[in-house]
Amino acid sequence: MKLIENVYTDAGWDVHEKSLDPEQIVTTGSTFMIGNGYLGYRGTLSEWRAEQYTACIVTDTWDTAQPGALTELCTVPNGLYLELSVDTVPLSAIDGATEVQGYERRIDLRTGLFSRHTRWASPAGGSITLGEERLAHADNVHLIASRFTLIADRATDATVRTGIDADVWSLSGNHFARKEAFTDGELNGVSLWTVESGTQIVVVEGVRTVDSSSESMMRRLDVGLEPGGPVTIEKVVAVYHGNDTDDPRACAVRDARRALSEGFDTLYAAHSSVWQRVWAACDIEIEGDLEAQTLARFNLFHNIIHTPTHARLPIGARGLSSQVYQGAAFWDQETFNLPMFVYTRPDVARSILEYRYDTLPGARRKAERLGYRGAYYAWTSGKTGDELFPDVFFTDVLTGRPIRNHFNCWQIHISPDVVYAIDQYLTATDDWDFVERCGAEIAFEVARFIVSRAHFKKDKNRFELIRLLGPDEYHENVDNNAFTMYLSKLALETAVRLYDELSSRTPQTLARTSRRIDLTHAEVDEWREHARLFYVPAPDPDSGLIEQFDGYFELEDVTPDRLRERLIDPEEYWGWPAGIAVRTQVLKQADVLQLFALVDSFPPDVMRANYEYYEPRTEHGSSLSPSIHSIVACGCGLTDKAYRYFHEAATIDLYNRSRKVKSGGSFLGGIHTAACGGVWMMIVQGFAGFRVSGDSIELDPALPETWKTLAFRVCFRGNTLSVTTSRWRLTVSGAEENSAALSVRVSNDEWIVSPGETVQIDLPRNR
Ligand code: BGC
């Protein structure tokens, strides 16, 4: 099926292109990439180099290339480099001297297998084809494996140059102070030491073929092709660094050697059985709309491959697809990436939240540096949790002058967002062990931070938060941003609740935690008092509207389209201090609506009034915005609008709808992982109306017109439920291995689903 222009799918499990658009190579390098949470290898072609954005981005390698540059993950030399020549003419799929007669590039989402085929008119006459399959191993995350196939339709003497290519894309400069090439038997390797911390990174490459002769780090293989008889070259690459192990070189050599002897088919078998388990937990099946099916899987796939599972590390806002946003976590992680894992692979969600525990010291340092107590999480969080976001991110494209943005010191909602995610995780899993070890301490430290950040307004007898940035980043330095107020109050309540719960469950553990962080009953009582008197802007009794922040309604009321006409340069930054949106009601992204997507205790008429007010004023300048609009539209019964926003959010990367590859002079390309996580939320929480209420699962499906059925699984407190719904009938099955019956509520009726049992529920026709 043709999805758009040059993008196709066969059966919703793949995406492929049939011709190469040189203008789109940044985007398609992300589209066709492979990854395993440890490394991301962009979907570029084997003969490409830095100029075509070739990069292998490796997690936990944060480094600052030179003073003043951004701290980011390193990209490592390209161990899969392979160039084919005939009669000394190199064959390239782009700008080559030779005619390309056939082309395809594909990503198989079922097993994360990249493939490409290019057929050239051979300089020696006839044609010659290069095929490649490649995978980022899902079991041993240090490995990339690939298999090249060469085939010619007449006898041809071809030359293959392959090895480890140092000419790769790196956004903010060269990260390596020292490089050392080595060989170890049949393997080539390179050791690199990062500029800032001197971390050693090792890339080892091995090739399995015939007739090789070594030429520094490149090998030259002379390949005699017989008509129709393919020659196969298998390659393996192993990557390790000093944050994984004390001896990265020995580990990389060991893994590469073993992998080389196992061969591609064996590696693929182990790799695909991991993928089989992953998809069994989190696949979503949509019948009746192949495009939506493909988009769903494409986005779930990306939410998976950018998420570290081998260690407690963050999910980057662009994942491992580029160094943009520094490979670091934002609030996106807790509010967009995690919900899918919380309900499908809770162990993965736990590991990400444990990462937030590990980075508490960094959050404490940030709070202290800015004059507060407790934990103020970094807006941009890498290994240590210290703030990575620079004071200056955008520049004024008209004057070239730097813009001081305050995301790193005023966007405080990040801390309560982390507590929100802990609460969600606990609700879904009942994992009190995690709360005792990590979750409670985080919540306590965040409560401390909020208390130290709040002001008491004596005349109003309430606590307020001033000088903020809410999710809408165009309005900096605002007071009482509604989203931040609600989330902060919730975080205070959660901290108090966990404290009280632990006092009766495990008083000794609580006493230990309290001692460690100097927490007293009196301080917890102070949190109670703050929670009680914390100001949350209520919906206006007449209009139902919640004001985004104090004074928002007095700003100029204009639509984003009219406002856009005021731009002098299309790349101008719209926000603080003098961007076109600052003195208007135009929002960058969902803000009050974001609250509804997270906290579902607002009545539908309030949600609808706010949806109708804020939606036309939202510019969607962030990829986080459309999915939230879709979820809230579902909650208000606006299924058509919800579908439109679903489509918008789900195509941000695949169809390159992220209009802003550059904004305010900053390059922002790569996979928008929050939008990917948002796809799960839109389908499961939006269209299926899934939520947890007390000990029950609630479902309230409202499917888009074209969807015949929607099927997915959720994991709830150790039990799995399979849900299939059409517009009229819902089928819910408890897995055989469940240990308990689950309560499922639909339109106020309750069904008890026992292990192995299937329940059919007719849905009300008025949805
Ligand atoms: C958005 C933020 C988001 C960040 C990283 C920005 O454009 O406004 O909400 O956290 O991108 O995705």
Strand content: 25-35%
Question: What gyration radius follows from the Cα positions, in whole Å?
Answer: 27 Å
The ligands bound in this entry are:
beta-D-glucopyranose
The N- and C-terminal alpha carbons lie at a distance of 31 Å
Can you name the CATH architecture of the largest domain?
Alpha/alpha barrel
Residues in helix, %: 25-40%
Could you tell me the mean pLDDT? Answer: 95
* Widest β-sheet, arrangement of strands: 1-2-3-12-13-14-15-22-19-18-17
Gross morphology: globular
pLDDT < 50 runs, ≥5 residues: 210-216
- Class by helix and strand content? alpha+beta
CATH class of the largest domain: Mainly Alpha
Domain count: 3
The biggest beta sheet reads: 11 strands, antiparallel
**CATH fold-level name of the largest domain:** Glycosyltransferase
Task: Supply the key terms.
767 residues, alpha+beta, Beta-galactosidase, Chain A, domain 5, Glycosyltransferase, Maltose phosphorylase, domain 3, 3 domains, 11-stranded antiparallel β-sheet, 5-stranded antiparallel β-sheet, 26% strand
Outline the structure in words.
This protein is α+β, with helices and mostly antiparallel strands. It folds into three domains: 269 residues, Distorted Sandwich (Beta-galactosidase, Chain A, domain 5), CATH 2.70.98.40; 357 residues, Glycosyltransferase; 67 residues, Maltose phosphorylase, domain 3 (Sandwich), CATH 2.60.420. The protein has 19 helices and 39 strands. The strands form ten sheets. The protein has an eleven-stranded antiparallel sheet. Helix 6 runs antiparallel to helix 9 and helix 16 packs antiparallel against helix 17. About 1% of the residues have low confidence. Bound molecules: beta-D-glucopyranose (BGC). The site of beta-D-glucopyranose has 12 residues, from loops.
